[in-house]
Design brief:
Number of strands: 6
Low-confidence stretches: 153-159
Strand content: 25-35%
Structural class: alpha+beta
Helix content: 25-40%
Order of helices and strands: HHHEEHEEEEHH
Radius of gyration: 17 Å
Oligomer: single chain
Shape: globular
CATH architecture: Roll
CATH class: Alpha Beta
Number of helices: 6
Strand order of the largest sheet: 2-1-6-5-4-3
Distance between the termini: 35 Å
């Protein structure tokens, strides 16, 4: 499924979304914010299952998938390459049925950047179903600067390209 298809399909499922400020809206936003804060390789799969609907669409600019089981597997594999991940939500905005979570992610990779912390800023567009579970998650962030820049060959190539611009 593509991002455009996910937008269309989730719009049909969620209708008008939550009433602004309702307990259901507050709980869904808080649950997702807490989910971002606590990424642990041993508990990520259970966390995904409690936060995402079974047929959730997910796109983080690197991977595009469409079930919570695939999301759980992908995030667990991604976390295996790290020592620690911290994500701080800076603010949340709503437009219609879409919620935008602006965040800063700090990652300490096992084998990249000599064990130093890397940082990336981004935003997640989220849609919740009527039960408050995520049915669509689309990240917008600088993958080149936040991840690829720390890879030995790719990072050198990116720095060379930036130097030529």
């Amino acid at each position: 499924m593509s991002y455009g298809e996910a937008l269309e399909q989730t719009a049909l499922v969620i209708g008008d979304g939550f009433v602004g400020g309702s307990p259901d809206e507050v709980q869904a936003v808080a649950r997702f914010t807490e989910f971002l804060r606590e990424w642990d390789p041993e508990t990520i799969a259970d966390s995904v299952r409690s936060v995402y609907a079974s047929d959730a669409y997910f796109n983080d600019t690197i991977k595009e998938i469409s079930t919570n089981e695939e999301i759980a597997h992908y995030l667990a594999e991604s976390l295996a390459a790290t020592e620690m991940v911290r994500i701080e939500v800076k603010d949340v905005a709503r437009s219609g049925v879409d919620y935008y979570f602006r965040w800063v992610m700090d990652i300490k990779f096992r084998n990249l950047n000599n064990g130093s912390w890397t940082q990336s800023e981004g935003m997640s567009q989220i849609r919740f179903d009527r039960e408050g579970k995520v049915v669509m998650h689309r990240d917008f962030w600088d993958a080149a600067g936040g991840l690829f820049a720390y890879m030995p060959v790719v990072g050198s190539l990116l720095r060379w390209i930036k130097g030529r611009l």
